Amino acid sequence: MNNPIPIEKPSRGIFAKIRNNFLAGLVVVAPIGITVWLFWSITGWIDSFVWPFVPRVYHPDILINRWFGDVNPASPDHLNIDVRGVGVIIFLVFTLIVGSIAKGVMGRSLIKWGEGIVARMPVVRSVYNGAKQLAETVFAQSESSFDRACLVQYPRPGLYAIAFVSTKAKGEIAEKVPTGENIITVFLPTTPNPTSGFLLFLPEEDIIPLDMTVEDAAKLVISAGLVYPQPKDKIDKALAKAAKA
């Protein structure tokens, strides 16, 4: 009697390979897709803000239809084209011109005169001053920017958290902190949202400097420690150094 020919069942390894290939492709495609979507959305947002201030006859879609198609939307020759990025260029050029004017004597006088008018408006004054302080903190190239990452003991000795050094404490804070040491201002971000956190004032000797950049430290905070931008042993050495101190 002939033995029946065994029927081979499909190996689960094939599905595992398909799954692994899909995940590997997702790792490559997802960052590219998110980056393209983000830049496309930001470009569209800036364009939607700029174009209302530009006469309609100078919009890219009108100019393209005037040269190559028909400005009449009902015409079959009308070209429906979404041109993005021109508004961004206009915004950049406009900002550069305003910045160059603001650095001059006349520009500073004009800004001072305008701020004097805004200072007389109760609600507008508060909004303007807050927006100005935020813009100066984020964009101004001064010593007040976050220039290095560090470790601090928080919320109690023996526990360490990543923080960003802002600047040396000044004024009343520096005078009334009951230590004779240099007091440093640091921002301790929360995970996974680094835009919120705690403002700490502590002696400079209590700060443990890190070799990683501010950007790399932010990645570590956002990822909740899952993404190490540099070898982990450097952080371990910093912790060991703090334990010996």
What does this entry look like structurally?
- The chain is of the alpha+beta class.
- The chain folds into two domains: 13-103, no CATH class; 148-244.
- It has eight helices and five strands, in the order H-H-H-H-H-E-E-H-E-E-E-H-H.
- The chain has a five-stranded antiparallel sheet with strand order 4-3-2-1-5, covered by helices on one side.
- The longest helix is centred in the N-terminal third of the chain and has 39 residues, at 12-50.
- The mean pLDDT is 78.
Task: Write the SSE topology.
Elements: H1 12-50, H2 60-68, H3 86-102, H4 105-118, H5 122-139, E1 148-153, E2 160-168, H6 171-176, E3 183-189, E4 197-203, E5 208-209, H7 214-222, H8 232-244
Antiparallel strand pairs: 1-2, 1-5, 2-3, 3-4
Number of domain units: 2
Number of helices: 8
Strand content: 5-15%
> What is the strand arrangement across the widest sheet?
4-3-2-1-5
Biggest sheet overview: 5 strands, antiparallel
**Judging from the principal axes of the Cα atoms, what is the shape?**
flat
Q: In terms of per-residue confidence, which ranges show pLDDT below 50 for 5 or more consecutive residues?
A: none
Radius of gyration: 29 Å
Features:
single chain, 245 residues, alpha+beta, 2 domains, 5-stranded antiparallel beta sheet, 8 helices, 5 strands, 13% strand, flat
Brief rundown of the structure:
This protein has 245 residues and is α+β, with helices and mostly antiparallel strands. Helices cover 51% and strands 13% of the residues. The protein folds into 2 domains: 13-103, no CATH class; 148-244.
